[in-house]
Design a protein that fits this description.
This protein is of the alpha/beta class. Strand 1, helix 1 and strand 2 form a beta-alpha-beta unit. The longest helix is centred in the middle third of the chain and has 20 residues. A 7-stranded parallel beta sheet has the order 3-2-1-4-5-6-7, with helices on both faces. It has 9 helices and 7 strands.
């Protein structure tokens, strides 16, 4: 799998799994756009990639704002002439409210869904005009989509539906669209949200460890690559067997 001089946009790349994606893709020879709403964290990741010999830029983007997404796509096009890959990772997670549908503030819920469910669609709209034939998109889903975990799970289930719909809709442009559904993955956001419960989850899984950002990057690289040229509309669990589907 050769990715030298390929151009990738990674949303939510200022920390956690998104940062892991950005660093791994840079190590594989890609030119990386660190698309992040937190300017300090996004610039840090881009600077560290460049200092390590990679090539990266930071673009501040709010994935719930279509004009912000379009502007991000335009910046990358102007900088590198194209976008080969898009990794829609941005989400409200580490500091999300843990509430039920019957009591969550409706304005918070609308914002949450705008980021976690529809952000992948808006970024796709912003990037696809600059993506040549043979490009690929990977959305960041979650095993929570099948675990009845309130509005977080519903947002990821919605993302799965968007993924399969876009796989069909963008097929005429020869752009493949797939998703990765991570299980519990070792990041500060997971610890902030789940605490020690994450370790309890591991005990119930066939592969008894937390995932790592590199596990997710391995899957993304495969889905981006020509080795996956006959794969689109797939929701790929990368979860240690946490959620087995038939």
């Amino acid at each position: 799998m050769s990715f030298k001089d390929k151009v990738v946009v990674v949303t939510g790349a200022g920390g956690g799994i998104g940062e892991g994606y950005a660093r791994r893709f840079a190590n594989e020879g890609m030119k990386v756009c660190v698309a992040e709403i937190n300017a300090e964290q996004g610039q840090r990741v881009a600077d560290e990639i460049n200092a390590a010999g990679g090539e990266a830029i930071f673009v501040k983007v709010d994935v719930s704002d279509e004009q912000s997404c379009i502007a991000c796509g335009n910046v990358v096009k102007e900088k590198w002439g194209k976008i080969d890959y898009l990794l829609n990772n941005a989400a409200i997670f580490g500091d999300m409210k843990i509430e039920g549908y019957m009591n969550v503030d409706i304005n918070y819920l609308n914002k949450f869904m705008a980021v976690n469910a529809h952000g992948c669609l808006l970024m796709t709209r912003g990037c696809v005009p600059h993506m040549p034939k043979g490009s690929a998109i990977v959305n960041q889903s979650s095993t929570a989509a099948w675990m009845h975990t309130g509005f977080y799970g519903v947002a990821k289930l919605t993302m799965n539906g968007i993924t399969t719909s876009l796989a069909n809709e963008l097929s005429w442009r020869k752009i493949r669209v797939n998703a990765i559904a991570p299980g519990p993955t070792e990041t500060p956001a997971l610890r902030n949200t789940a605490g020690s419960y994450a370790d309890e989850l591991v005990k119930t899984m066939p592969i008894k460890r937390l995932g790592t950002p590199d596990d997710m990057a391995n899957a993304a690289l495969f889905l981006f690559s020509d080795q996956a040229s006959f794969i689109t509309g797939l929701i790929m669990n990368v979860d240690g067997g946490q959620c087995m589907r038939v």
